[in-house]
């Protein structure tokens, strides 16, 4: 059970300059140090910037827009706006 938990755990340090690199362990197994981590749907970077998170969300919005354009070719403007507001803008 603990081996499975260690594969899901990682260490990230936050700040502008990160000069300390302590080794953290859980039940004698060292934890992996990462620069970005995803928690509750947000992607956090060690420099406290959200560039990667915003890029991911913009790409998902473009994918949803592409789905609407490919699958709904004969839409009225009102229907397109409704789909856009529900799937892309949210």
Protein model, in words:
- The longest helix has 21 residues.
- α2 packs antiparallel against α3.
- The chain folds into two domains: 48 residues, no CATH class; 41 residues.
- By secondary structure, it is an alpha+beta fold.
- The protein has a two-stranded parallel ribbon. A two-stranded antiparallel sheet has the order 2-3. Strands 5-6 form a two-stranded antiparallel sheet.
- The model has no long low-confidence stretch (mean pLDDT 83).
- β2 and β3 form a beta hairpin.
Tally of contiguous helical segments: 3
Largest sheet: 2 strands, parallel
Low-confidence runs (pLDDT<50, min 5 residues)? none
N-to-C series of helices and strands: HEEEEEEHH
SS strand fraction: 15-25%
Shape descriptor: elongated
Task: State the secondary-structure class.
Answer: alpha+beta
> What is the strand arrangement across the widest sheet?
1-4
């Amino acid at each position: 059970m603990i081996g499975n938990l260690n594969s899901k755990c990682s260490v990230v340090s936050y700040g502008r300059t990160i000069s300390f690199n302590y080794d953290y362990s859980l039940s004698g197994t060292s934890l992996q140090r990462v620069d970005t981590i995803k928690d509750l749907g947000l992607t956090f970077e060690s420099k406290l910037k959200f560039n990667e998170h915003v890029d991911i969300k913009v790409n998902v919005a473009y994918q949803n827009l592409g789905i609407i354009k490919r699958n709904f070719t004969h839409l009225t403007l009102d229907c397109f706006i409704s789909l856009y507001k529900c799937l892309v803008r949210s």
